[in-house]
Amino acid sequence: MLLSLTDVEVAYGAVTALRGLSLEVDEGEIVTLLGANGAGKTTTLRTISGLLRPRAGELRLDGRPLSTIPAHDLVALGVSHVPEGRRVFPSMSVRENLLMGAYRDRRHTREDLDRVFALFPRLSERIGQVSGTLSGGEQQMLAIGRALMSRPRLVLLDEPSMGLAPMVVQTIFEVIAEINRDGVAVLLVEQNAASALRIAGRGYVLETGEVVLSGTSASLLSDDRVRQAYLGEDLTPTP
Amino acid sequence: MGFFDQFWQLTIDGLMVGSLYAVIALGYTLVYGVLQLINFAHSEVFMLGSFGGLFAARALLPDGGVPGGFQSVYLVAVGLAVGALCGALAAFTLERVAYRPLRRRSAPRLAYLISAIGASLFAVNLAGKEFGRQNVDLPDLFHNDTVFTLFGADVSTQSLVIFAVAIAMLVGLDRLVAGTRLGQGIRAVAQDADTAVLMGVNVERIIIVTFVVGGLLAGAGGFLYAMTFNASYSMGFVPGVKAFTAAVLGGIGNVRGAMLGGLLLGLVESYGGYLFQASYKDVIAFLVLVAILMIRPSGLLGERLGRAA
Ligand SMILES: Nc1ncnc2c1ncn2[C@@H]1O[C@H](COP(=O)(O)OP(=O)(O)OP(=O)(O)O)[C@@H](O)[C@H]1O
Ligand SMILES: [Mg+2]
């Protein structure tokens, strides 16, 4: 097992955000994490990255507990996190942002830049532009490209489709599938359940900090609760 | 003599003092950039560096007469190096003792300010006790001749040394922040600390490096300052507030802003001191501070550490 969370509890002061959450991501798979606003999806990813520490429970990467590993070493262990809201470094150029992705290991920078530009040709046209002035879609491409610069084995993606036009969303999802074809595992947080379940093999549904449903994408797609709550289907029987 | 006859002399003097303000201002601006913290004890880092350099140079100074040639270069170099090291050590200790424990507890902003004032009082009084409460002289390390005249103004060896060393440090720091991996880490932390962590940046290490680099500059700057004005336990306060003014003037958190702010403040002070009265110099500096805070609080070049680098 690449990543496993067991009975993880996380709190912000008095507010408990995760109540005994367990999930697993295996080598090379795409797993999606669905849930309404405030369900705890971002909290889950930030806990995996070590930005938040669990109050109880355990996280393991390759079977090794993560509790003693500082957050800034996670990228060196093969975990890349594309945060909610993209969070590109606004005053840095596109190129500098990508180099930040390779901050810990500059040995393959040139090759990896070429690879990112092959995935997102738009970025190579904007290489010198200050990132704060990129469009939302370009910033998302940059955030994903930056995460790939460390040659991760697992990419955590927090709502990559948020606020983007359907065309751009499609590009992003195609790239996620392509990254995965190279053997990279993906933990994909999404509100856009239909697109997420289309590329993911499995999924978890989160409600107020707990997993309420999990299974293969096919089984989730045919589950009434998922169809009603996350796919926006009207399931009231027509008379 | 009128202002215009004195213009170039005032410009040269202003640039010399201004380049020192700029060197000190960088320490304020770097720390503010990464921690959004105004390190009010930075003036004492400057003072301690100044004493360190001064005592080192004095210890090596041969008896009788002003040294010259290679010996002067050697003495200035040693003074700068020891001053820089003492400044770095003071800044490092300050971070460890006065700020880090607060960070560990996620203390409120006010706690940092109080801690800074406490550290500052401690350093001033310790220096007063150890080094005496009078001025401590730094004898001449070289013959302070006029090297050349520029538009009728004399440029002395001393102004030239101070200006050249200060500018070299400013350029070096600018290159460090803009062009190295370490500088990229500093800018990343300044722009978005959480995301910097996700990139693998060790924020605690960046914070220490930032303090140490600020301390190196302030310490070397302190030695340069002592070459003109000698040293004393209370010497930090006024240049400290002026350098802080320079940092705010340029846009606190902004490296090139601090440099520009320092040079501008030096010039304004020099011209103003002549037009009004030399004793108004300090008043002018603080008027500038109040005026910027009222008119353009984000400073001339804006607030971001990343932007200008
Ligand atoms: N910094 C914080 N301080 C206090 N409470 C927080 C903080 N961040 C999140 N929370 C709370 O924790 C819960 C989970 O938040 P989280 O951001 O993980 O949700 P999410 O599933 O990512 O939601 P969204 O889809 O809106 O991004 C929410 O109730 C939220 O209010
Ligand atoms: Mg979220």
UniProtKB/TrEMBL annotation, chain B:
Q: Which InterPro entries match?
A: ABC_transp_permease (IPR001851), BCAA_transport_permease (IPR052157)
Q: Where does it mainly reside?
A: membrane
Q: What CDD domains does the record point to? A: TM_PBP1_LivH_like
Q: Where in the cell is it found?
A: Cell membrane
Q: Name one Pfam family in it.
A: BPD_transp_2
What name does UniProt use for this protein?
A: Branched-chain amino acid ABC transporter permease
Q: Which domain of life is it from?
A: Bacteria
Q: What are the record keywords, sorted?
A: Amino-acid transport, Cell inner membrane, Cell membrane, Membrane, Transmembrane, Transmembrane helix, Transport
Q: Which family does it belong to?
A: Belongs to the binding-protein-dependent transport system permease family. LivHM subfamily.
Q: Which organism is it from?
A: Frankia umida
Q: Topology relative to the membrane, per the entry?
A: Multi-pass membrane protein
List the signal peptide residues. Answer: none
Q: Indicate the transmembrane segments per the record.
A: 20-38, 45-61, 73-98, 110-128, 148-173, 206-227, 283-302
